[in-house]
Amino acid sequence: MDRVLVERAMAGDRGAFNDLAALSVGRLYGVATLILRDPDRASDATQEALIAAWRDLSALRDPDRFDAWVHRVLVRACHTEARRDRRRRTVEIRELPLDDHAAADELPSFVDRDQLERGFRHLGVEERAIIVLHHAQGFPLAEIADVLGLPLGTVKSRLHRSLQTMRAALDADARVVTMDGERIA
Amino acid sequence: MTARHDLERQVSSWLQSEMSTSAPPGLLDAIQREVEVTPRRAAWRIADRWLWRHSAGLRVVARGVVLMLVLAALVVVLPLIIGIVGSPRPAPPFGLTRAGLIAVDTAEGIVIGLADGTQRDVLVAGGQSVSPTWSRDGLHLAFWHRPGESGPWSLAVVDPDGQDREVLAEGITLKVREEGLNQPSNLSWSPDSTRIAFAADVGSGTSIMVARLGRSGAIQITDPSLEAIDPAWAPNGGVIAFQSSATFTLHVVEPDGSDARRLSTLTDTFLWPDWSPDGSRLATTAGVDEQSDIFVVSADGSTVTNVSHDASQEFSPTWSPDGSRLAWARAPVGGSARGYVVVADPDGPNLTEMRVDADLAPPVWSPDGTRVYSYVQAPDGTFAELVILDPEGVAPVVRLPATGNIGNGNWQRLP
User: Which of B16, B28, B312, B385 to mutate to test the interface with A (most CBs of A within 10 A)?
Assistant: First the structure.
């Protein structure tokens, strides 16, 4: 992120902050979408985060840490958004006809994504944020600890536990029940 | 590569494929407009100014203290909470459990199969068989059968492997629920899976009847003048709810026919009611201003809540096995005949409308709560198929080919 822009924004220059927002809004929205799994909520969280970032920019001491700091504000906004009552939504569902050979070939990838999605939804916002920042954004764990205000050991253990939770959910989903009660993997 | 690294690789790949890199149109403009009117806060007023960085240890200590205080409060308050507002978890055969076979009636007969299309089998062939209904313990399948296309029906029960077929009642005249649907009133098993309630034409009207496994015949438990249909046996076994198609009101009666009474003041009710798994509430359909909405009625009838409030025609609510959600069918007003499935939190505003390219009929929950199925009827009413939906609207729809007039059906509960 451009240090000069950050310094100007910290000094109260709205135009500079708007430039920073333009540079970061796409990435922040992408992160929020991954964490919240809902585009409408992600949009609200991103808007809330960037407005809060402008309002509280005086709290930032080191301009070089703007990117990590704004991610921290975003994760907090995701927390708030996740706690809100869900609103009405309409889902146009993807279809997978079993008699369509082309679609049937895609079955494993659909199933994998579905299972990953289900496993991911078992996690809380903070656990999702750790996984997204590490595995989608490439943040080192030490930086995630900084972003979330947690000790490094806590971040490591939460990442490990989150993956265990996902694995348990995937394993549970992978079990197919037969009529006589046997399970096949 | 270890399993853990394999999962991490899968997760990374999946997240990166799902990652959006551009914000929706208008978002940046909205942010910039808001920034223009948002004042800055003084640094001393911002907690992060004091806590940001080097404060993780302090936060952990603070969280520990708060946690200890909360635990201490819980030790004192928990027994009171349990005593006052605690309610027992739904006992088997209610609550979440493993999903077994789907049973539906088709032109081939009673067809069973898993939700992925495998293990498909025609369990009962020959004659006409409709309304397959699994017992709460998943060990029996009840259905109506007759040898030809007309004449009286027999109530029969068969094991999941098609063996040990038993006829409980014969010579039954069924009341068709709605003209043109060829769909009789539903069967309802008692919670202990030993008895079945159904509606039959007794000459002077339609009554709720109760048959018992291992015995022949059934007892009549309601006044025929009520024109009772669509029984729903309460989870505690104490009462059977039903609709009166004479007065379009909701009633309950004890299984021996005693203490029959109207349940609530709700009017213009139709189609079948469904008990929540804990037996505290009933969901039902009722007319509102020439449309219909979904209502939740307390077990004692004292409270009635409209949970849908939509201009569409909405009908046939069913509770998820854990009682946390309701699913129902929605047909938009004035548009095409397309019907949708709605999944909603009955106590809150959470609502998902699932649209697929099909005319969806009343949904049925899987016993594990991860899927609902509905069925699709072509405009000419001669072809139908099952659609398996994810109630969270995430997984793709799976359509299972089927033929015939699919009507009632449900999903086997496995222990």
Answer: B28
Query: Please, what is the average pLDDT of chain B?
Result: 82
Q: For B340-384, how does the pLDDT look when each residue is reduced to its tens digit (9 = 90+)?
A: 788 888 887 677 777 765 566 678 899 988 888 877 666 555 446
- Would you call A51 and B38 a contact, using CB atoms and an 8 Å cutoff? yes
Chain B residues inside the 8 Å CB shell of A132: 15
Alpha carbon separation from B110 to B131, B347, B404 (Å, rounded): 9, 36, 11
Tell me the pLDDT of chain A averaged across its residues: 78
Using an 8 Å Cβ cutoff, are B183 and B407 in contact? yes
Whether chain A has a CB inside 8 Å of the CB on B393: the answer is yes
pTM of the model: 0.59
> What tokens appear for A144 in the block?
């995630």
The per-residue DSSP string of A50-105 comes to HHHHHHTGGG---GGGHHHHHHHHHHHHHHHHHHSPP-EEEEE--EEETT-HHHHH
Q: What is the dihedral of CA B74, B76, B77, B81, to 10 degrees?
A: 100
| Pick from A30-39, B275-284, B369-378: least confident | B369-378
Residues B329 and B340 sit within 8 Å (Cβ to Cβ):
yes
Option in B21, B117, B160 nearest A98 (CB): B117
- Cis bond upstream, residue B93 (ω within 30): yes
Q: Considering CB atoms only, which of A25, A51, A176 is closest to B28?
A: A25
Chain B nearest CA to A1, separation (Å)? 16
Q: Quote the minimal CA–CA distance from B175 to chain A in Å.
A: 33
Residues 6+ away with beta carbon under 8 Å from B83: none
Q: What is the mean pLDDT of residues B219-235?
A: 93
Query: pLDDT class for B405, splitting at 50, 70, 90?
Result: low
- Please name the residue of chain B whose CA is at the shortest distance from the CA of residue A179: B100
Determine the average pLDDT of the residues in B32-59. 65
The pLDDT score that the predictor gives to residue B303 is 92
**Is there a contact between A90 and B355 if contact means CB atoms under 8 Å apart?**
yes
Write down the pLDDT at residue A89: 55
- Tell me the β-bridge partners of B389: B372
Distance from CA of B33 to the nearest CA of A (A): 10
pLDDT at B335 over 70: no
Of chain B residues 339-368, which have a CB less than 8 A from chain A? 345, 348-357
Whole-number Cα distances in Å, B238 to B254, B275, B318: 6, 12, 20
Q: Report percent pLDDT > 70 for chain A.
A: 76
